[in-house]
């Protein structure tokens, strides 16, 4: 379907290739509830994670729905009526402030690795996806009242996003841009898999035990913005999410955030003891940020 995004087409083709490996020469009449169970078992035996299997099943469901809509398959034969797609709640990996600091201060002599690190850090400060970062041009950077903003339309969702670079993470993204006067030299990255290899090497240099991929930069941005006290709805707009529920999944509560908020409560209680005649309400004890 030419109306679908390229990323959607790629995902569908990926599932079709796996289906062909499982059972070539399939016809729509072969797609039964039993077939779905067998396909799931095949994917599991191949070592696929629960959520990877779920992704293929969702793609297959999309194909079945399209087949029914176009008359290639009867609605009564819909195999997903009884089949439930199993999925686990994923944990989005992110960097803590201390881990981010290690990457910011690590000594890197190899030019290509330095380039990957700068690109990764830029996305930690802006929340851009790899696909959005790689398509940036000078036209995406504009000045409003003398301040630099980043305007772009997301490749994945088509949502327009506006980022005030001077207000995010102490303008650190601007510092990276200043080292790359030609924006093309910053955004011209190797393929995603090669970038991820470089990031794993960088993690090793910094003694970071987590498995870092490029998308960890986006999770890091969302998590640290919430950690800084930015409203979840504001983070939603900065990341270009159409639903705040998506943003809530990305954000995590850091242990340091819990400690900070509890200390704030303690400070407020001390104020009450010092000034008992102020007539404070219960709401004064609650951190509403």
TrEMBL record:
Quote one Gene Ontology molecular function term. DNA binding
Protein keywords: DNA integration, DNA recombination, DNA-binding
Q: Name one GO biological process term.
A: DNA integration
Work out whether the entry's keyword set contains DNA-binding. yes
What SUPFAM superfamilies does UniProt report for this protein, alphabetically? DNA breaking-rejoining enzymes (SSF56349)
**Domain annotation Tyr recombinase: ranges:** 90-264
Q: Which Pfam families match?
A: Phage_int_SAM_5 (PF13102), Phage_integrase (PF00589)
Annotated ranges, domain Core-binding (CB): 1-68
PROSITE patterns (UniProt xref): CB, TYR_RECOMBINASE
Say which family it is in.
Belongs to the 'phage' integrase family.
Protein name, entry field = Site-specific integrase
Supply the source organism's classification: Bacteria, Pseudomonadati, Bacteroidota, Bacteroidia, Bacteroidales
């Amino acid at each position: 379907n030419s109306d679908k995004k390229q990323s959607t087409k790629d995902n569908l083709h990926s599932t079709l290739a796996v289906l062909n490996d499982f059972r070539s020469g399939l016809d729509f009449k072969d797609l039964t509830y039993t077939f779905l169970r067998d396909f799931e078992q095949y994917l599991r035996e191949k070592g696929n994670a629960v959520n990877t299997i779920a992704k293929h099943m969702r793609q297959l469901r999309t194909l079945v729905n399209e087949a029914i809509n176009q008359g290639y398959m009867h609605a009564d034969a819909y195999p997903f009526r009884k089949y439930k797609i199993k999925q686990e709640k994923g944990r989005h990996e992110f960097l803590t402030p201390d881990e981010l600091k290690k990457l910011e201060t690590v000594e890197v002599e190899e030019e290509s690795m330095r380039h990957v690190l700068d690109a990764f850090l830029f996305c930690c400060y802006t929340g851009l996806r790899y696909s959005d970062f790689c398509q940036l041009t000078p036209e995406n950077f504009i000045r409003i009242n003398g301040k630099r903003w980043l305007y772009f339309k997301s490749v994945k969702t088509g949502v327009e996003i506006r980022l005030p670079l001077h207000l995010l993470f102490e303008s650190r993204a601007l510092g990276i841009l200043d080292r790359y006067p030609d924006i093309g030299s910053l955004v011209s990255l190797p393929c995603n898999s090669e970038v991820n290899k470089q990031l794993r090497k960088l993690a090793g240099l910094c003694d970071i035990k987590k498995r870092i991929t490029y998308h960890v930069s986006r999770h890091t941005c969302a998590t640290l913005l919430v950690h800084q006290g930015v409203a979840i709805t504001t983070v939603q707009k900065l990341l270009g999410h159409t639903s705040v529920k998506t943003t809530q999944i990305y954000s995590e509560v850091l242990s340091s955030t819990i400690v900070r908020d509890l200390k704030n409560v303690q400070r407020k209680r001390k104020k009450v003891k010092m000034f008992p005649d102020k007539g404070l309400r219960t709401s004064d004890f609650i951190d509403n940020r």
